[in-house]
Structures are given as C-alpha cells and as structure tokens.
Amino acid sequence: MDLTALEPHAGLLVVAVIADAAFGDPVYRWHPVRLIGGTLAALEGILRRAGFDGYGGGVALGAALSVLWVGGVSLLVALSGVAHPLAPGLAHTVLLYTLLAFGDLLRHGAAVDSAAASGDLAAARAAAARLVGRDADRMDGRACRRAAIESLAENLTDGFLAPLFWYAAAGLPGIVLFKVVSTMDSMVGFKTERHRRFGWCGARADDAMNLVPARLTWLLVATAAAIIPRCSSAKAIHVGWRQHAVVPGPNAGWSEAAMAGAIQRRLVGPIWQGGELITETWLGHPSDPPAASAKDFWRAVVVGGTSAAMGTGLATWACL
How far apart are CA 5 and CA 76, in angstroms? Predict the structure, then answer.
C-alpha cells in the first residue's frame, strides 16, 4: 500500500487545474460526485426508515459517507500501484481534475451573457436558471447577467478555491471529504421541516470547511482587483468586510460582496422565488451602478480567473 500516493502533489495539481480550465467538468456515469449523491440518497432512506431522521441520523449519515468515500477512495488509490506503477498517479490526477469545478462555471456564465447579448431573453433566463435558484421568468437580461456574476463569485469559493485549500492541507482525502460535505449540504442542508434537523450536520460541516477559504477568496479578489484596469481593490476590501452578512450564511457573502466592490457594480437587487419577492437588497457600494452589461460580466470573469490563478499558485506552493 502506497500512502504517499494520497499526499498533495504540486505537479499533479497543475495538470488537474489546466484540464479543468480546458475541458470543464467531465460528464460520465461514474463521476464521483454523482456516486456520492447516489450513496447519500440510499443511506438517507435506510436511516429514515430506521427512525433516525433527526440530528443523530444526519451525523450518522455524515460519518458513514466519510468512511465509505474518503476511506474507499484512499484505499483504491493507495492499492492501485499493484496493478501498474503509474496507476496511483493517474488515478490521483483524474480524481483531482474531476473534483474541481471552475471551467464549467465560466462556460455556464458565458452562455448567459451570450444569450443576453443576442437579445434571446428566454435562452438567457434558461441559462441563468441553471446557475441560481430564483424565478428566472421575472428576470430581464441585466438581472440574468447579475445572477451569472453572483454565481461565479460564490462558486469561486466552494467550487474551486475551497477544494484547492483542502487538497493542499490534506491531500486527496481532504478534497474528497470536502466534496462529501458539500454534497450533503446541497442535498439535505435545506432549512425545511424535513431537513431542519437531519440536514444540520451537513450544513454546519459545510460552513466550517468553507470558513477559511471564503475569507481567503475575499483577499484574493481584492488582490486581483489591484492589478486589473477599472477595478477597485479598496472597494473589494471595504464592501466585502461591511456587506458580507447581507448574503445568507456565514461564507457566501465574502466572495460576492468582494466581487461587487472589485468590479464597481452592484449585485443582487430584486429576487423572486416561488412567486414571492424575497429581497430587494443591493450588494455593493451605493455610488456604483447595478451590473448590467457584457463588460461588467467579463470584468468579473477576469477578476475571478485571476483570483483562481493566484489561488492555484498558492496551493501549488503549499504542495511543494
């Protein structure tokens, strides 16, 4: 058993990041996140039928998923060298590439912008609906672009920089554990009566694992804004610090508020969900106009991409 095959590796990380940028998230039947989701659904059914549908059931779900997936993936990679000397490195790289998700996010955002630019509001709304959970039929092209920017900013943390952080900190087991927790949060971490207690473990674990990466993203966005024309590092710092709590949850607001300050445009605004107006709050400096144009979107892409590149550089250095 080769446990060194599980350790952070700078070269393999660079290969995985380049593959994610070039090809996006691979679509195949045995995608780890899809399999984790399937395992979660099966275990949830077993636990609920056994009467474990409260806090204890949620904790048991997290423990079981962690043992199965972190332990199982680690064992398979560590033992794969028996089949071929190159197998551990290959398996490590493929898994790492599969568990990063920034390239696809850029492509989905670009689809929103392209549709809005061509005047195809239906297509823009459909593309935006794949990124955010709000009533897209009430959104105009400008609101669709704002939604794409908000999704880019939020997922810069939990889709890319947080996985990098946990990979650099704990290798392959670290990034797999992060994806287990992230999947739990997305599937059962809802604040509904059915999931309020059962999903508590997944939601709180996700908050904990994103705590440091979210604040690092705030600083990376502000640093990127300092070197990009027509962006403001000072506003990214100020708006991120003052307005991060505007967005629900302890983490998402750091990157979204920082992005609003960095591109000097306001985000969010009126949001409808389930036919109800849930917020009319704007995120950003009061003197800045709302984000609306293709230039606003692509400026956010440049800020996000630069932040991702800097984060990759830091993670690679940490892996050396």
Answer: 10
pTM of the predicted model as reported, rounded to 2 decimal places: 0.95
Which tokens go with 194? Answer: 């059915």
Do the beta carbons of residue 295 and residue 263 sit within 8 Å?
no
Q: 154, 86, 147, 158: which is closest to 112 by C-alpha?
A: 147
pLDDT grade for 92, boundaries at 50, 70 and 90: very high
pLDDT in tens, 105-159: 999 999 999 999 999 999 999 999 999 888 888 899 999 999 999 999 999 999 9
Helix H or strand E encompassing 14: helix 10-23
Q: What is the pLDDT of residue 307?
A: 98
Which tokens belong to 130? 């794949």
Element containing residue 237 per DSSP (H, E): helix 233-243
Chain-centroid distance of CA 307 in Å reads 14
State the virtual CA torsion across 125, 257, 156, 190 in degrees, nearest 10.
-70
Q: At what angle do helices 10-23 and 162-188 cross, to 10 degrees?
A: 60
CA gyration radius, the chain: 20
